[in-house]
Amino acid sequence: MSQTDPSAPIAPIALSCGEPAGIGPELAVKAAKLLTGDIPFFWIGDPRHLPQDALYEEISSPAEALEVSRWALPVLRHDFPEEVRPGKPSLENAQSVIDVIRRAVALVQSGEASGLCTAPINKKVLKDGAGYAFPGHTEFLAHLGGVEHEVMMLACPELRVVPVTIHIPLKDVPAQFNPELLEATIRVTAADLERYWGLSRPSIAIAGLNPHAGEGGAMGNEELEWMIPLIERLRKEGFDLIGPMPPDTMFHARARANYDVALCAYHDQALIPIKTIDFSGGVNVTLGLPFIRTSPDHGTAFDIAGKGVADPSSLIASLRMALDMAIAAARKGRG
To answer: Does the fold of domain 158-277 match that of domain 1-149+299-335?
Structure first.
């Protein structure tokens, strides 16, 4: 069954285990208990890593998750070398974490899963334990998907934001935030907002790099020298672009009502407003991939792992968004 086959039913969402010593396993169990099949998904990992009182059932194929998810967490077993202690990651398990991600992507690409939701990983553990060569989760997924330019979007009901540059020092932003990168980000963002959200001409607000968007060159020249010319050229192609906007005045409620997504120059410019608005419910979405990928907007949280206090809200929102995207893509395919 192909994911793009318009006659096929929506397959369940694949949830990769992420770092098993973090909060990922307990969140999967909590999400399954709260959802009771409302969002069919299955967890790929080692059952030994789940909480002792976890209600789960092993499955032999993703299709079984459609029924099993009504009463338990469906588990597609993937054996790891070692058991884990919450909060104490093992380097011996690092390669298996990577292998689970590969397996999950393959299931989505084959159509056995309709989308991928990834639990958080710890990059240092993967690097030290398995020579992980990617700066983050997203870059590895882009490699697996064979794409050169992926886009990270954070989304909640009130706001969508895209950091054009991501995990780099602030001092490096002016060099990497350039016309080619911004244009590529605009094109990928617009295409996937149409594909997965049905926005045929999304309104895209673009934050200035400098305070007050440069204030006519008084506080920086990037806006005048290349941002405005680029925006005007793309408007002539039909893109609905707003800006460059002063970053400090574009995130209040009245301003947010005027656009569908905000493109920001660097990491904190994008993530501070969305985490302020919805700290627990934000979803990390990777645009530009040949498959659907979402992730909760939090880390492994080793400090609270195994204590039973982790909040599943972001994971549930991520699973729901992956399913909604899959349904939208299927409808667009039928059209």
So the answer is: yes
